[in-house]
Design a protein that fits this description.
Number of domains: 2
Strand content: 15-25%
CATH topology of the largest domain: Rossmann fold
Low-confidence stretches: none
CATH architecture of the largest domain: 3-Layer(aba) Sandwich
CATH superfamily of the largest domain: HUPs
Length: 473
């Protein structure tokens, strides 16, 4: 799924830019939509879409079987949304009251989405954590917005910029205005006892998993056998038919053994993947192109979720649950323990900023890794109600300096919820290292006498060249 929009400053042919952007995501079975001020057209071919005389236009490319995105048209305006909403209330009921009312309705809802509306101006909004990316570039004549970088790469000499999440951004008369954030995140810790904190976290986790699995009969779950994915599986298995999927590039056995033991404890089916070096090398170009990034850390973390989501799609799943956000929220990284020994107050702010910047470091590429395989990414640990409470907790409730235990309150909550101790007490390892993705990248790059950075940049450049040869850029 891809959403694009264009504002034409010189004449009334914004549809030219929109159709050009849609062409970059041509795929078999794809259907295309073009909207402008109360009108909409659709076709299996971009070339067959209408040519409206409008300075503003929106477009949607919808792949067969992909998570739902919509192009909505109302009197005098239209809206396009990529992603999904978790609540039953349909915000499109507010369309008759105008684009501003639609945005207000969206702000009140939880989900993973980016939305654009067009009247006499362009208005854009991303969910509070920016789970679905939205980029903008000013080419001089056209102001371009898209949920994929590649749509802008081929239509603007300027690199696209990522719009901030949780804000309403308006473009009118050559100017951009940004409203205040829609969600107020805690600025300072508040005192609370460890027992009360664990109880509250346990209750919020139950609610969050319920919200983020609502509407799913079955789902895949990216599984390591550690605390984050293990607790998520333990809670979700009562709500959804789960299939656990684990990928290990190192093929050492230790990581797979941990996952298999945890799956056995949970009595859940598991698929163990051990891609070879040659298989990983073949997939890397798809990962780099799908994630639109040659950044080493981004690719290292996206590679496992890309492989897991591709496997899930081949098994006919349409969604995947993951433990994204738990490390930043609950203090899972070793750097938080080191920081706590130096300055607890600084640690609080560091955890807070790391979580609120998830969209730049992880969610942007991981969303696209799953979307490349037509899967929706479900993220219970990023639930706003859960996150707002946990971010208000003192870091000492999340990281214990004396024992060195990280994710302290999450482990206590897991025990209160009845999660097996083998999972509640599991140690934490970074996904790119525990799965062997980082080491595998270094091996592949070394065999070509290149650094990982130059190797990945070469893959992205080659993917761009191939796209240009196919007329996609």
């Amino acid at each position: 799924m891809t959403v694009v929009a264009a504002l034409d400053r010189e004449d009334s042919q914004a549809s030219t830019a929109v159709k050009s952007m849609l062409s970059t995501v041509r795929a078999p079975g794809c259907r295309y939509y073009l909207g402008w001020r109360g009108h909409a057209d659709s076709s299996r071919s971009v070339d067959d879409l209408a040519e409206p005389g409008s300075p503003l236009a929106l477009g949607v490319a919808a792949e067969s079987g992909a998570p739902t995105s919509r192009l909505l048209s109302q009197d005098g305006w239209c809206a396009a949304l990529e992603g999904y909403l978790l609540h039953g209330r349909d915000p499109t009921e507010s369309m008759g009251k105008g684009p501003h009312r639609l945005m207000e309705a969206l702000i009140e809802l939880e989900g993973a989405f980016s939305c654009i509306t067009a009247t006499r101006l362009l208005v854009a909004y991303r969910d509070p954590l920016g789970r679905v990316p939205l980029y903008v570039a000013d080419s001089g004549r056209w102001l371009l917005l898209a949920t994929r970088k590649r749509c802008i790469w081929g239509n603007s000499p300027r690199d696209p910029e990522l719009l901030p999440p949780g804000r309403i951004v308006r473009y009118a008369k050559g100017r951009m205005s940004v409203s205040r954030p829609s969600v107020r995140w805690p600025q300072h810790p508040r005192p609370v006892s460890p027992r009360d904190a664990a109880r509250k976290v346990a209750a919020l986790l139950l609610d969050a998993v319920g919200r983020w699995s609502a509407g799913l009969d079955a789902s895949a779950l990216a599984f390591s056998g550690g605390l984050d994915s293990g607790l998520l599986a333990y809670l979700a298995k009562e709500l959804v038919a789960l299939r656990l999927i684990t990928v290990d590039f190192a093929q050492s056995g230790e990581y797979l053994d941990q996952a298999e033991r945890a799956a056995s404890i949970l009595a859940l089916p598991i698929r163990l993947m051990t891609p070879s070096k040659s298989e990983t090398e073949e997939r890397l170009r798809d990962v780099v192109w799908g994630c639109e990034s040659a950044d080493r850390i981004s690719v290292e973390t996206a590679l496992p979720i890309f492989c897991v989501s591709r496997e899930a799609r081949q098994m006919a799943y349409t969604s995947i649950l993951t433990g994204h956000g738990a490390d930043e929220l609950f203090g899972g990284y070793m750097r938080y323990l080191r920081s706590m020994k130096r300055d607890p107050s600084m640690t609080f702010q560091r955890m807070r900023l790391d979580f609120l910047n998830l969209q730049r470091r992880d969610l942007e590429t991981d969303f696209k890794a799953c979307a490349s395989n037509s899967l929706s990414l479900r993220l219970p640990y990023t639930d706003v109600q859960l996150a707002r409470y946990v971010l208000s907790l003192p870091p000492s409730l999340r990281v214990d300096v004396n024992s060195g235990v990280r994710k302290l309150v999450l482990r206590d909550a897991a025990r209160l919820l009845g999660c097996p101790r083998q999972i509640a007490d599991a140690e934490k390892k970074a996904v790119q290292y525990s799965t062997g993705a980082s080491k595998m990248l270094r091996i592949i790059a070394r065999e070509q006498n290149r650094t990982v950075g130059s190797f990945l940049s070469g893959l992205l450049d080659a993917a761009k060249r191939s796209a240009k040869e196919q007329g996609l850029l």
